Amino acid sequence: MNKRLLIVALLAALTLNVSAQDYPPKNTPELEFALQLKVTLGEAFGIDNTQHGRRTVIPITGGTFEGPLLKGTIINGGADYQLNTENRTELEAIYCIKTDDGVYIHVRNRGIIANGKDADGNPSFYFRAAPQFEAPADSKYGWLNNSLFVCAPDFSPGFKGIVLNVWRVK
Question: In this structure, how many other beta carbons lie within 10 angstroms of the beta carbon of residue 66?
């Protein structure tokens, strides 16, 4: 069965004239700005020394968001669940937003924060995440369901929370 599958894949590659020699690939994805979230946060609490590391929970208390195609508020009641090891944090923020025209959208944002060294041995900081949106499919926000997104933080002095800039991968 595996030989048959391999032969079919090779024939398909030859038929489609697929070439693995194009490097770097010519179809590099583009990014399009989608929205900025200004998320207010409550007091964090943690559980030390779990079998997976330190678990930190940061309550999401509200905020606002705005982009070219949507605008609204962040609903109180979500949280950012972080798992911390020595130089790395895995995060998963789960919350809801409400558009100015009354549509609720669920958000699940997973990401990584890492402190380390770059290829030259210099200290480095990495913080990226990939939010997923669940909007009503029959709404004008249904497009959020059918795209991949990436986000990066923007630290703003004086703002008690985090600012996340979100791009849609085209």
Answer: 12
